[in-house]
Amino acid sequence: MPGNDSKGNSYYLRGTKNSTGINYDAIRIKFNADGTGYYTTDENRTFPLEWEFKNNKQEEMVLRVNYGGTTTYHWKMVVIANNSLYSTTSFSDQGENLMVTTRYIPTR
């Protein structure tokens, strides 16, 4: 998972490299067919979520995670293929403009 901010590039690849400071191995997202699910953080805290595709081509998703207040994530360039979900998203965090590309794979 590559990322980029004003401090430079960060990169996470399971089992080999992690310059992000976040344990992405612990993060889990469960998508239920009814548009609900849950998000488990790197600190093993689980929160309910709602999700939906924003168009019929299923190229964009919105996830709303309730951490005690709702945080909305807008995933762009969504591709579901090869038993994986890929997305690229840009967002602002504490004044930093960031772009993150992710690949999520099924777990048990």
Task: Describe this structure as you would to a colleague.
The structure is a single chain. The model is unreliable at 1-6 (pLDDT under 50). The chain has a ten-stranded antiparallel sheet, with no helix packed on it. The protein is mostly beta strands. β2 (8-13) and β3 (17-18) form a beta hairpin. The protein is 0% helix and 61% strand. The chain is built from no helices and ten strands. It has one domain (2-104).
Strand order of the largest sheet: 3-2-1-10-9-8-7-6-5-4
Radius of gyration equals 14 Å
Kindly state the percentage of residues in helix: under 10%
Structural class by sheet pairing and helices: mainly beta
What is the 3D form?
Answer: globular
State the gist of this model.
The chain is an all-beta fold and 108 residues long. It contains no helices and 10 strands. The two termini are 21 Å apart.
Descriptive terms for the model:
108 residues; mainly beta; ten-stranded antiparallel β-sheet; 10 strands; globular; disordered N terminus
Please give the structural blueprint.
Layout: E1 2-5, E2 8-13, E3 17-18, E4 28-31, E5 36-40, E6 46-53, E7 61-66, E8 70-81, E9 84-93, E10 96-104
Antiparallel strand pairs: 1-2, 1-10, 2-3, 4-5, 5-6, 6-7, 7-8, 8-9, 9-10
